[in-house]
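Sequence dictates fold. Below is an illustrative record:

_____
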Amino acid sequence: MAIWGADIQQLKDLGQRLVTGAQAIEDQKSQLTKALAGTDWKGPDADRFRNEWSGQHTAALNKVAAALKDAGQQAKKNAQQQETASS
């Protein structure tokens, strides 16, 4: 018979790291958005990049951050469930 499970503390730590990583991505996105807004850059290349940044690039970063946050919360939930089952 195989026993399934994980080290509860390691799983909690992983969950926290995933959530922290999501926050780091959100912080970096915000900093880059501010830097872009504060950059004196004009012309079609600037317009194209700003449109791409505010459209597809920030959307992609939001998606990654949300996925990391969800995974982190799920890992923490799994740790709690395992802790409850073990006690």
